[in-house]
Amino acid sequence: xxxxxxxxxxxxxxxxxxxxxxxxxxxxxxxxxxxxxxxxxxxxxxxxxxxxxxxxxxxxxxxxxxxxxxxxxxxxxxxxxxxxxxxxxxxxx
Length: 93
Prior knowledge:
By secondary structure, this protein is mainly alpha-helical. The protein has helices at residues 16-20, 28-35, 39-42, 47-56; strands spanning 60-62, 75-77.
């Protein structure tokens, strides 16, 4: 899902990568996560919640072929791409 929905290119606006490059925040995966979880039954996410979740999952990526950071396809967290600071989702910090 990270690859299919391009989350590996999503960077927080306040992150080191976000300040350097204009790729920006990608909300595709953040829209899909609630659709595949039990949270969907409890509460529908509003646009602001989707944006908040997108900021929380910035930096989620995977090791690509030839990467020295892990086996190809394995989960990879890009610290420089992650939105810094506390985030709030569904009213909880």
